[in-house]
Design brief:
alpha/beta, 10 strands, globular
Length: 335
């Protein structure tokens, strides 16, 4: 009998221990899942900007340093190779954040124009729209006064397949010109400025926030001119390509003889969808809660606002961005 009692007690102890183990493990599993879902901040993010002579790089390095100093999210800005390449690097996982023109981001998300052959890229979302990027047609020739005057001239229209290239084709098309009506060359901002200085080209399309370093440097030794767009052609362009907006570059920006009318597109910051919500939240809060400090470091900060940052409608926002904007009373589209 004693043997049976001892056996019975042993079985009871085994079941009790099993029950305790099951009870202890369940909360632990739930806790792990919660921690994984929370995806706390503190990540190290690489931010693809633009060429060293452009606004993306200059402003991007300021933003990266600011976020790193103000939060536990570490952001490193690197030179980028244009909006298309930035988005491709984002999709490949080479970077976690990038700058992009709003039109190129739309091309990527819908699989059109630059992304027609490779197909849509949908594993990214918007962090913020920061400022407008002007289409600047730069020349040292005062006789080139309109887009029509570019016919037969040697013109840099951006790197082949770049966002600048498509902007140039749009602008030329609005005036009834095609790529075949000019002698096109395909150069970066810095190379375009050097070619203008050396007399190798007559004009160049540069799409970036004004003032742009490449043009500012050119203006230090030469009288630069920007080609204006007239209202009739601007209206037609905006009707066919609604991502453009009318914009004015004041004469004092580069020392041009007068203010210049042109069009502009938005400069966006994009993020991979798998970037932690808290890191994207940190990126936004550190900038928009301290805009005076950002502006003191770079003039583009003065053009940033929460309202404009949350104005994108054709591409969803990252959940971390949506959280920040919700706290400001603004609802943005998400996936």
């Amino acid at each position: 009998m004693k043997k049976y009692v001892a056996l019975l007690l042993a079985l009871v102890m085994v079941f009790a221990l099993a029950a305790c183990g099951s009870s202890n493990n369940a909360p632990a599993a739930e806790g792990s899942a919660a921690e994984e879902a929370a995806a706390p901040a503190g990540g190290s993010l690489t931010f693809a900007t633009g060429g060293e002579s452009g606004t993306y790089y200059a402003f991007g390095t300021v933003l990266a340093q600011h976020v790193s100093d103000k939060t536990d999210t570490d952001v490193t800005a690197i030179v980028g190779n244009g909006s298309q390449a930035n988005i491709e690097d984002l999709s490949d996982g080479a970077v976690q954040l990038c700058f992009s023109q709003s039109d190129v981001a739309s091309y990527a998300y819908t699989g059109t124009n630059l992304f027609e052959e490779t197909g849509a890229v949908e594993d990214f979302s918007v962090v913020a729209a920061l400022y407008m990027e002007q289409v600047q047609i730069v020349t040292l020739n005062p006789d080139i006064k309109t887009v029509a005057d570019l016919a037969g001239k040697t013109v840099s229209i951006g790197a082949a397949g770049s966002g600048v290239y498509f902007n140039a084709i749009d602008i030329l098309g609005a005036y009834g010109l095609t790529e075949a009506d000019i002698n096109p060359v395909y150069q970066s901002f810095a190379d375009s400025a050097d070619s203008l200085k050396d007399g190798k080209i007559d004009a160049a399309f540069i799409v970036a926030g004004a003032p742009t370093t490449a043009i500012t440097d050119l203006a230090t030794g030469s009288q630069v001119y920007l080609v204006s767009l007239d209202d009739e052609h601007i209206d037609a362009l905006m009707e066919s390509s609604p991502y453009y907006a009318k914009n004015t570059i004041a004469a004092d920006v580069y020392g041009t003889p007068e203010d210049v009318s042109t069009v502009a597109i938005a400069a966006l910051v994009l993020a991979r969808d798998d970037v932690a919500d808290a890191d994207v939240y940190n990126f936004l809060s550190s900038i928009f809660d301290n805009l005076d400090e950002v502006t003191a470091a770079h003039a583009k900060g003065a053009e940033c606002s929460v309202e404009f940052a949350s104005s994108v409608t054709d591409i969803p926002y990252h959940p971390g961005a949506a959280q920040y904007f919700a706290e400001q009373g603004i609802t943005v589209p998400t996936k």
